[in-house]
Design brief:
2 copies of one chain form a homodimer.
Chain A (H helix, E strand, L loop, with lengths): L7 E5 L12 E5 L10 E9 L4 H5 L18 E7 L10 E4 L6 E4 L5 E2 L16 H13 L7 E4 L5 H12 L3 E6 L2 H10 L4 E4 L5 H8 L4 E6 L5 H6 L2 E9 L3 H4 L10 H6 L3 E4 L9 H13 L7 E5 L4 H9 L6 E5 L3
Parallel strand pairs in A: 8-9, 8-11, 9-10, 11-12, 12-13, 14-15
Antiparallel strand pairs in A: 1-2, 3-4, 3-6, 3-15, 4-5, 5-7
Helix pairs in contact in A: 2-3
């Protein structure tokens, strides 16, 4: 006899065209059968929503994707509820690619530990998770941000931007947020400590950068692609560094943006590096050892936007892809 | 009474549209009057012809240009024929921006020394001059070419390419030339020591790269822009380095090429740097101290294409801009 465990899941109903809409998703029960021997059953506590998922559901993210009828993929923090593995006992909190659902069975090698010192598990999905690691890889490892730098960060109050801003401030750099709307501008300067904030809708970006950074931008963390990329690139100081990390416009499938003319990189003597956070998995422990204690000591702001219940995920994701989020978007799925 | 010194010069007759033609230039006598006190009179020995001059005569090279009616600008090696300056005595050979003419009067601060050990002054315009310094800056300083690298060099037998290939070989890298025609292919592999050669007209570049560099290209020295830039970028290995240095298609004014999509740099985890050789003037002595002795010892190939007489300069330059040169193009103006 097989036991069934009810398991609410969010399924891709159809591939979105352009910006995703809530009806591209549907909620279904996808019950789990008996757990296979050697697998570990996990109950999702928090689900991370990230812009790169837009290309996953388009079917073309770094060579893998989700098809209509599949559970949406995504990183979660989960609690082990069934296990025979002594290294992964019941009750332990882990990180894994659980997807948009309440339960999954995982092989032990697919589980990552969550730092034991972490009192709030959602942090393992935000400033101490992939967005935080991305910010650290981009600003500390690749751009090597230092005192005196003038750093521009778009998507400024999102998961990556929030941590990037704090890393830059700790390095003694000056930070300029690009965001939109009075609430996000307030979060940027009051909560996250950006020195300056440019509204990407209300302000003329080129003019605002000329005024805010009259000596030029020395570091740009590109999370969005064109037209912001080209506009900021034109304002680089000589020897400026650009970390290319995200292309939110392309994720929505609007178009393939071209990026700046190569002559601009020559004229600016720029150093441009591509960042894929997966390359930094091996350095995650180094990152955690430095920043978990700071987070626990209250010296880092997480700025999470937590939504309640799996059913809230589609709306929250659609808002995220429209830039309507006010922080790193996390969905509380279980307790 | 004023003395006049006859001075044949090449003048810009009109701005070229697209590829330059010989009738965009004219030869004129521009006699020199008395030398001003404090100036040094120089007789041109060799004139360097370089692709960047195409943007100079378009009026838009790094913020300066040459207008119709002006003598064409260009770097020369010259002998001092009149001087009151003890540091720059008559007979000394110097490098300066003499332009396309037989004589110029220069302020001492506009003169650069030519290494005394140099037995062939034209080398100060080729592998030991700006092209050589460019190759060293790109391959040694920026790309940091090392053993095991697979390096692609377009414009492979030109001034920069010739020295770049030899620097890469000395570092233990494998080199792939991109050039055209049987004579240049022969020069690339037999004279300059490239390991492989791709004909940019007869071969399919993408296919040839896949075959020649099955593990990908680790370093690309971009001297030409698109479409070569994008095709090679697609063949980069993970972590590949690209030095952006020239945009020969744009110099001809054909179009502003866009360059690779930024997503490609991300996927490849590429490091892309812009190179302007003027930034390396302060390191020229370091460069010369290493490579002048090697050149004198016959351990470096110059591969110069020397044309005789100033009147040959327009044709030689027009051929250069059509890729018809077989080496670094130098014009012998005087003895």
């Amino acid at each position: 006899m097989t036991n069934h465990l009810d398991n609410m899941a969010v399924i891709l109903a159809k591939r979105p065209e352009g910006l995703p809409n809530p009806d591209d998703f549907k909620l279904e029960n996808r019950p789990l059968g008996d757990r296979l021997s050697g697998q570990v059953r996990c109950q999702t506590l928090y689900l991370s929503l990230d812009p790169y998922m837009r290309s996953v559901i388009a079917g073309n993210h770094m060579g893998h994707g989700v098809d209509p009828g599949d559970v949406i993929a995504g990183e979660v923090v989960a609690r082990i509820v069934e296990s025979d593995d002594a290294d992964w006992p019941v009750g332990k909190v882990v990180r894994c690619q659980g997807g948009w659902q309440q339960f999954t069975d995982q092989p032990p090698e697919a589980l990552s530990r969550v730092p034991a010192a972490l009192s709030r598990p959602s942090l393992a999905l935000s400033i101490l998770g992939m967005p935080g690691l991305t910010a650290w890889a981009g600003m500390v490892q690749q751009a090597k941000v230092r005192e005196g730098d003038m750093v521009v960060i778009p998507a400024a109050v999102g998961g990556v931007g929030a941590m990037a801003a704090q890393l830059c401030k700790r390095a003694g750099a000056t930070t300029i947020a690009i965001t939109s709307g009075s609430e996000k501008r307030r979060i940027a300067t009051e909560t996250l400590g950006y020195d300056h904030c440019i509204d990407r809708i209300e302000d003329d970006l080129a003019e605002a950068l000329t005024r805010t950074a009259p000596n030029g931008v020395s570091v740009y963390f590109d999370l969005v692609g064109d037209p912001t990329l080209t506009t900021v690139a034109q304002q680089l100081s000589i020897g400026g560094r650009v970390v290319l990390c995200g292309l939110i416009k392309d994720y929505n499938g609007d178009h393939k943006t071209a990026g700046p003319h190569p002559g601009l990189w020559i004229t600016k003597r720029a150093t441009v590096t591509g960042l894929v956070v997966y390359d930094y998995e091996s350095q995650r422990q180094v990152f955690e050892e430095e920043f978990v204690p700071l987070a626990e000591a209250g010296e880092l702001v997480a700025n999470e936007e937590i939504h309640d219940g799996l059913a809230a995920a589609p709306d929250a994701f659609c808002d995220l892809m429209r830039g309507r989020n006010h922080g790193k978007v996390v969905v509380r799925v279980g307790e």
